[in-house]
Amino acid sequence: MVTQIVPFILLVLAQATPNASWRLLTKTGFNESTYSVRHLSMHYSRVFLSISVKGNDSPTLIETQWQVSHFPMTTVIFPHRNIHANGAHSDCTLLQQAHWSQVDGLSRLWVMDIGWPDSRCRPRLFVFDLIRNNEELLRIDCGQHIDVKDTQSLVVRFGPKAKSSKLERHIYFILGHGPHILTYDILEQTWKNRSLKSHKYESMQQSFPIKPIDFTFGLQGELIVADKDGGIYSSLDSLQWEDNSELTSSSLKSHIQVTRLGTLLGNGRSMIMDSLGTLYYVIPKFGAVVRCVQLANITAEGNEIIYMTSKNLQQIFFGNNGAVWVLSDRVLKTQQMCFPGMLYNDVF
């Protein structure tokens, strides 16, 4: 099996110490100037990385382990090299560019392949069975609903799990150019495009469309949306479903009504909420990670910056112990980091 080393760094925020980092060191195959990390997903000790590689001629989905006590940490191409295009952008039977991945309640890895802007290959979802030796189960053509030219701002997330079965039924997509959220029903294998509307402010009676750039889900299954103007909104209704419900795609309303929660410090990305209802998000322009404890009447004072760096922050996620981690798309040095109230001299 082919192995490669991919350099990147993860920093723990909830337990911020100089040694609380996870780095893959540069070795043969990739170096710091040839790659960037798009997305990370986890399944117990397994970690799946969607990466972009300069030259567009290498596999873009790799697997490693979380956490190990020795370096460098080797990685393997997932599930194997032969499924990747490796530069063959006209062969639409192969995985072109992994953009996002997530593991569902049945231990299936869902992978979003966005293709290339100048390629005839349309965006697709790949599904792999992690229990049965990473066997490919399904391919879903998304081209009728997601244009390859609209994938640069694409955000993908599973919807809330059902309370009883703890399984996901819907996958949600925003394309970043219109006031809509796209829904794929895993059970029915159907698509529905729903508009997002808000009164914007309490004094307004008329609903206005909002243009989302990122979203997540709250503790009650409500949709939480950040828009391009720095506002944050929450749906009035929960999007969580029940196993015994008669919910169908045709029964969903054509729009989702959201209410304004307040203002973020900028264009929030990679929003995520912990089990206590605390919201975390990234402001890529400033390299900042921000925490909001109270999601009501949010003002500047309600946004707490807990980490800053000069490099691009790609994603926030939770470790198995509940700690908050942030993913950078490249290796960081100590002088590029700033923890409020702390000064470190160690080099990662």
Automatic annotation (TrEMBL):
Keywords: Glycoprotein, Secreted, Signal. InterPro entries: 6-blade_b-propeller_TolB-like, MRJP/yellow-related. GO terms for cellular component: extracellular region. Residues 1-16 form the signal peptide. It comes from the Eukaryota. Its main location: secreted. It is found in: Secreted. The keyword Glycoprotein applies. PANTHER family: GH10609P-RELATED (PTHR10009:SF7), PROTEIN YELLOW-RELATED (PTHR10009). Belongs to the major royal jelly protein family. This is Yellow-k. It comes from Drosophila guanche.
